Amino acid sequence: MPKMKTKKGAAKRFKVRGSGSIKRSQAFKRHILTKKSPDRKRRLRGMVEVHPSDMGLVKQMLPYA
């Protein structure tokens, strides 16, 4: 059987932790930052977990993760 292919766009956006949970970066912090408050920009820092309802789709895109 041929190997399954990983979706490369997903591989760049998601990382799998040792526990099996998947982390992602926050959205809405790329541009138009002048109108966003400093508190809001601070909350958007760092990584967060993928929501459980989206976990199945992400795992399909990353078959070997």
TrEMBL record:
This chain's source organism reads Hydrogenophilus thermoluteolus
Tell me the Pfam families matching this sequence.
Ribosomal_L35p (PF01632)
Q: Could you tell me what this protein is called?
A: Large ribosomal subunit protein bL35
Task: List the InterPro entries hit by this protein, alphabetically.
Answer: Ribosomal_bL35, Ribosomal_bL35-like, Ribosomal_bL35_CS, Ribosomal_bL35_sf
Chain residue ranges for the region called Disordered: 1-25
Task: Tell me the Gene Ontology biological-process terms attached to this UniProt entry.
Answer: translation
> Biased-composition ranges for Basic residues?
1-16
Q: Which GO terms describe its cellular component?
A: cytosolic large ribosomal subunit
What terms describe the molecular function in GO for this protein?
Answer: structural constituent of ribosome
Q: Which UniProt keywords apply?
A: Ribonucleoprotein, Ribosomal protein
Q: Which family does it belong to?
A: Belongs to the bacterial ribosomal protein bL35 family.
SUPFAM superfamilies in the cross-refs: L35p-like (SSF143034)
